[in-house]
Amino acid sequence: MRVLVTGAAGFIGSHIAEAFQAAGHEVRGFDSLAPAVHACRPDYIDWELVVADVRDAGAVDKALNGVDAVCHQAAIVGLGVDLSDLPAYSDVNITGTAVLLEAMGKHDIGRLVLASSMVVYGEGAYDCPAHGRVRPAPRDTADLAARRFEPRCPRCASPLATATVTEDAPLDPRNSYATSKVAQEHLSANWARLTGGAAIGLRYHNVYGPRMPRDTPYSGVAAIFRSCLENRVAPKVFEDGGQRRDFVHVTDVALANLRALDATGRAAARGVHCYNVASGEPHTVGEMAFALADAFGLGIEPVVTGDYRLGDVRHIVASPEAAARELGYTADTTFTEGMTDFAKAPLRDPVARA
């Protein structure tokens, strides 16, 4: 099968392209090689690569010639916390996806795997002892400034217990990146209804691993901590370090995309289906920072700062059961194995600045 992988030069996209090739698929990559992310064409690319912007309808149309399925990874990533971020996230992530989907319809391509994100949920799932499952409102700035980081019950202000998020949880995007990911899912649903196609959205949790970009706005927290350790600087952990996340290795994410690609060929996959892509082994951000520092082996300890960022959520822990049951996907890399590997894994060099 010939698969177009958008964002194929990037951190996650490149691992997906390799996994597809290893499974016997022919890969055509598509990537803008945006200067904010890439100083040049990465040397690990071993597949055809179309260098163009996903918003360029002409380039997308040509790239789809002879393609059987699309794996859409291209996006601007990050929180997007400022008003100035809104146009870029809307233009690249939303308009770019719409351009791609329209062209897929013209080429009668009916199989799509979409990179979504855990951020579509907003805060994770919480239970109140008095009111059951609740959806806490965004955390109050006064609480954060006073280092009261845990969300409270919106009805009685009681402390809440963290629960796992399943795919049927309400979507509650709380920044412009999250909103763009929800829009991508909805656009894919529109495309599927109009064409009878099959779309599978993969809601990635905290992905880490080789080729993460360092020292850029696109860096994830794991790469930021790694860069600090390389520079012999103590990683700074926001809040009290107790934020719970699910850290999933990029090779496991690539495997999830391969399983999803296979699933789009089944009759039952028609329409849109979304799945959590997670390890099922949650840890706190503080645990991740200390585990990475320990594996790095320089004796540098992270510093828990108490600082915070508006738009961050406190806890989000996923249930990976649906992906295991319906896609046959289970993450293979344990937290300890992954962090030990990541401590020495190559990161993508930062773009040179004048």
Mind sketching the topology for me?
Elements: E1 2-6, H1 11-22, E2 26-31, E3 48-51, H2 57-63, E4 69-72, H3 86-106, E5 111-117, E6 125-128, E7 132-134, H4 141-145, E8 161-165, H5 176-195, E9 198-204, E10 206-208, H6 221-230, E11 236-237, E12 244-245, E13 247-249, H7 250-263, E14 271-277, E15 283-284, H8 285-296, E16 303-304, E17 317-318, H9 321-326, H10 335-342
Parallel strand pairs: 1-2, 1-4, 2-3, 4-5, 5-9, 8-17, 9-14, 10-13, 11-16
Antiparallel strand pairs: 6-7, 6-8, 12-15
Helix pairs in contact: 1-7, 3-5, 6-8, 8-10
Describe the structure.
By secondary structure, the protein is an alpha/beta fold. It has 10 helices and 17 strands. It has helices at residues 11-22, 57-63, 86-106, 141-145, 176-195, 221-230, 250-263, 285-296, 321-326, 335-342; strands at residues 2-6, 26-31, 48-51, 69-72, 111-117, 125-128, 132-134, 161-165, 198-204, 206-208, 236-237, 244-245, 247-249, 271-277, 283-284, 303-304, 317-318. A 7-stranded parallel sheet has the order 3-2-1-4-5-9-14, with helices on both faces. A 4-stranded mixed sheet has the order 7-6-8-17, with no helix packed on it. A two-stranded parallel ribbon has the order 10-13. Helix 3 links the parallel strand 4 and strand 5. The longest helix is centred in the N-terminal third of the chain and has 21 residues, at 86-106.
